[in-house]
Each structure stands twice: as C-alpha cells, then as structure tokens.
Amino acid sequence: MTTDPTTEVTIGIFGGTGQTGRHALHHALQLGYAVRVLARDPGKLNVQHDRLTVVQGDFENVAALRETVKGTTHVICCAGGSYGKGYDKGMMTRFIARLWPLLCAEPSLKAFLFQSVFFAPEPDGSNPLILKLLAPPAAFFTGASEMLKDNGAVMRFLAANRSDTFGSIVTRPGKLVEKTGGVALVASRTPSFAAISFADLGAFTVGAVQDASLYGRYPFVALKP
Ligand SMILES: NC(=O)c1ccc[n+]([C@@H]2O[C@H](COP(=O)([O-])OP(=O)(O)OC[C@H]3O[C@@H](n4cnc5c(N)ncnc54)[C@H](OP(=O)(O)O)[C@@H]3O)[C@@H](O)[C@H]2O)c1
C-alpha cells in the first residue's frame, strides 16, 4: 500500500519489523502521523493503514532507501544485525554511509535518530566508567563485540558528518524486555540499568526524534523518575 505523506509529521523508519521498530511504527500511527517504512519482507509488518507507506527493499537498495525517506520530517533507525558470529561486520556503518546523502538531500527532514547499543562510547571516546569497565566482558559474553564496534563507528560517522539542515540523535537504551508498555521513559545523561520494554522504547523514540534539545546528543534511556 502506498500513500503520499500529507500530515505535518512524517516518520521514516528503518528496522520497522524489529523489536523496537514495530512499536515505534504503531505508536507513530496511533499519534496520527504518516509513516514510511522500509521492509525486506512487508508481510512481517502485519499492519495496514492509510497513513502507512511500505517500501520493499533492503539496506543495499538505494532507490528503496530514497523512497523511504521521501518527504519525511523525521527518520528513525532501529535496525541492526544478529548477535554472535553471524553478525555482518560493519553492516550498520555501510548502511548509514549509504543513507546519509539521501537524508542530506531531503529538504523536509528535521531530525534523524539512530538507536545504538548501551555500551557504545560517545565519538570522542567518553563513556561512564562503569560502562568502560563492563563493555568488553558484556560484549564478549553476549556475542555483541562486532555490533558494538559497528555502532561505535556509526556514532563517529554521524559526529563527523553533522548536517546543517537537520539534527541527529543517538540513543543508547540498556536492558530491553518484551513486556506490556505504559511506562514513561526519559533521555538521561547517566546510564540506566533498569529493564525497559520494547513498547515503551518505541514510544519514547517517536517523541525523542522530535525533541530538538536532544539534537547532537547521545542520551541513555531511563525510567521517568
Ligand atoms: N535488542 C536489545 O536488547 C537492544 C538493546 C540495546 C540496544 N539495541 C540496539 O537497538 C538496535 C535495534 O534492536 P532491536 O532488537 O529492536 O532490533 P531487531 O529486532 O534485531 O530488528 C532488526 C531490524 O533491522 C532490520 N534489518 C536488518 N538488516 C537489514 C537489511 N540488510 N535491510 C533491511 N532491514 C534490515 C530487520 O529486518 P528483518 O525483519 O527483515 O530481519 C529488523 O527490522 C540494535 O541493532 C541494537 O544496536 C538493542
């Protein structure tokens, strides 16, 4: 199904079939926004809506990437690869480098949000001490070493290629669990070890990409105090 984006806010989503992205997609539709989503297998989305435009394709398909971001005001990337040895090394860095010129060419775009991993340091290498200490063993035991490297490289790419015309945000959520949502989350300067639901993270992300106070920042995600 395709629609022309007509509402004031049009959210582009990469990773919309994933654990966070599917909630971001539903939440954006619930709020009355237009949504454009890239999906390798549109059948996995399991949703039809007159404000939803589904573009079939993958990260290699530049035409599909361009079509996904066409007319968007905000773009969210909740995509990623698998944990462990099967991780396609550098996949997110290649994808973001391919996507970037398309975002820069999109006149309506106000902000881009990239969902990274908890342990990834800021581009200047800074990270709270607790995460510096925990990152190597945590990445090793969860099989996320390559994912962590890749996400760090994306964050350095975004910092080195800041746009004058739209803001970028990198979120670093911590422990995520599949449970019912309904809990308010906030952007935080300090890491939170509390478990948060994919549903709440999806909703938070749709709000965060529209929060200009977060542009240029790398917030953790915490329960609202
Ligand atoms: N899960 C966690 O516990 C956790 C915690 C903290 C941070 N994070 C970060 O958040 C990101 C998102 O995590 P998640 O668990 O919500 O995602 P996920 O469930 O692993 O979903 C990944 C998404 O990326 C899409 N994708 C992967 N490769 C693609 C390609 N080549 N072309 C098009 N689409 C592609 C997948 O599409 P298909 O459905 O077609 O495979 C899927 O929609 C992760 O990468 C990680 O960096 C995750």
Summarize the amount of helix as a percent range: 25-40%
Mean pLDDT, as a whole number? Answer: 95
Number of β-strand runs: 10
In terms of per-residue confidence, which ranges show pLDDT below 50 for 5 or more consecutive residues? 1-6
Number of helices: 6
Describe this structure in words.
It contains six helices and ten strands; from the N terminus they run E-H-E-E-H-E-H-E-H-H-E-E-E-E-H-E. The protein has 225 residues and is α/β, with parallel strands linked by helices. It has a single domain (10-223), classed as 3-Layer(aba) Sandwich (Rossmann fold), CATH 3.40.50.720. Helix 1 crosses helix 6 and helix 4 (129-142) crosses helix 5. The radius of gyration is 16 Å and the shape is globular. The N and C termini lie far apart (41 Å). Bound molecules: NADP nicotinamide-adenine-dinucleotide phosphate (NAP). Residues 15-21, 40-41, 44, 58-59, 78-81, 115-118, 147, 151, 173, 176 line the site of NADP nicotinamide-adenine-dinucleotide phosphate (NAP).
How do the strands and helices of this protein lay out in sequence?
Elements: E1 10-14, H1 21-30, E2 34-39, E3 52-56, H2 62-69, E4 74-77, H3 91-104, E5 111-115, H4 129-142, H5 145-160, E6 167-171, E7 176-177, E8 185-188, E9 196-197, H6 198-208, E10 220-223
Parallel strand pairs: 1-2, 1-4, 2-3, 4-5, 5-6, 7-9
Antiparallel strand pairs: 8-10
Helix pairs in contact: 1-6, 2-3, 3-5, 4-5
